[in-house]
Amino acid sequence: MAHEQEPQGKPPSRPKASGRKVEFNADRAFQDELRRRADEYFQSTGQCRRDCWRMYLKTAILLAWFAAAYVLLVFVARTPWQALPLALLLALAAAGIGFNIQHDGGHKAYSNRPWVNRLMAMTLDVIGGSSHVWRWKHAVIHHTYVNITGLDTDIDVGILGRLTPHQKRRALHRWQHLYLWPLYGLLAVKWHLRDDFQNVLTGRIGPHPFPRPRGWDLVVFIAGKGVFLALAFGIPLLVHSLWVVLLYYAVVAVMLGMVISVVFQLAHCVEEAAFPLPREDTGRMEDPWAVHQVKATADFAPRSRILTWYLGGLNFQTEHHLFATTCHLAYPALAKLVEETCREFGVRYAVHPSLLGAVASHFRWLRRMGLPSATA
User: Fold this and answer.
1) Residues contacting residue 219 through CB under 8 Å, at least 6 positions apart
2) pLDDT > 80? residue 20
3) Which of 25, 38, 261, 303: disulfide with 184, CB 3.0–4.6 Å?
4) What is the pLDDT of residues 216-244, one digit of tens each?
């Protein structure tokens, strides 16, 4: 199944979910124009779509940051005042690896060489995830069905939260704009210790069946979990007591979960993002695939070079959804042509000028979705 999610080719073939197969409007004018302008940009500037030297340098910096924080935390720190900052730095390094190295590798955006992309995607296995499960959950399912309730599993947090107007409202959601923020920190713990195993054992991601890992994929899955458990618990237990290891695992995991969750929510679960549904009679979406991607997504803090560097361009989420197999280093330049094309085609292009503005929008969206009057 293809998961090439950009205007340089066809929209991806779409996975079925419980017998459903959603189709998008076949009008490709907007998508073809985006493709033409992107091709023109890369040809006129000589910039690379993949295999960018700056990406290799960035990879070295992030891996060195992770290794240094880990070694200092496990083998050097002797007091809480030393250990706590190092634990937070380790969590930020792990998130940075996920946002940049793993993310580009998993989307085949890191290199023109498949083995390089695969190697970079496998950094997720080292920090506790599964590159195999992630490819299906994120690169295929989320990028195909972004913000479609019941199909996009990334906007389903179960009974504890209501992120779309089409999900059932419960009484406790009245306060979700307050209690969900600390719960976001549990994402990494679930991901490390439950979700990947459950997905592989059941062969399902939400309503979607997906192929269990076999052969080399199964080797990577098992070895990755072993390496992660050794890094998180095995090696630290050689030099620290159990309660200390569990405490600092919790600190790192909660910080990691919080950062990853919030970055995702700022792109899709804000006031400006759309949550359309397919027509009941035809199962067809009103908009073409590329238009849907833009309407369901929002950028934030586009002028912050620090955030753009650290987040792997995920603050340019619209550009990522349109050009997912292009290295994220090109997103700021592509954002200009995407905005111009949206303006000419009358497609809403949403962007929050700052990180704080995006956080505030997500807060207001959670509060709105928790109200009894919130409807589609």
Assistant:
1) none
2) no
3) 261
4) 999 999 999 999 999 999 999 999 999 99
The β-bridge partners of 284 are 23
- Furthest-apart CA pair in the chain: how many Å? 64
Amino acid at 364: R
Query: Within a 10 A sphere around the Cβ of 144, how many other Cβ atoms?
Result: 26
Token code pair at residue 289: 């695939």
Concatenate the DSSP letters of all residues of 221-281 into one string.
HHHHHHHHHIIIIIHHHHHS-HHHHHHHHHHHHHHHHHHHHHHHHHHHSSTT-------TT
Model pTM?
Answer: 0.88
Query: What does the pLDDT read at residue 280?
Result: 80
Query: Quick check: 24 and 292 in contact, CB under 8 A?
Result: yes
Q: Tokens 């179960």 sit at which residue?
A: 158
- The pLDDT tens digits of the residues spanning 349-367 come to 999 999 999 999 999 999 9
Is residue 205 helix, strand or coil?
strand
**Phi, psi (rounded to 5 degrees) for 69:** -65, -40
Retrieve residue 342's tokens.
């949206």
Residue owning tokens 């006031």: 271
Q: 134 with 299: CB under 8 angstroms? A: no
For residue range 136-153, what is the model confidence (pLDDT) as tens digits? 999 999 999 999 998 999
For residue 299, CA distances in Å to 103, 145, 269, 331 come to 17, 18, 11, 11
pLDDT at residue 23, as a whole number:
86
| Residue count of the chain | 376
Pair 93, 66: CB distance under 8 Å? yes
Q: Distance (Å, rounded) from C-alpha 185 to C-alpha 112?
A: 35
Better-scored residue on pLDDT, 73 or 18: 73
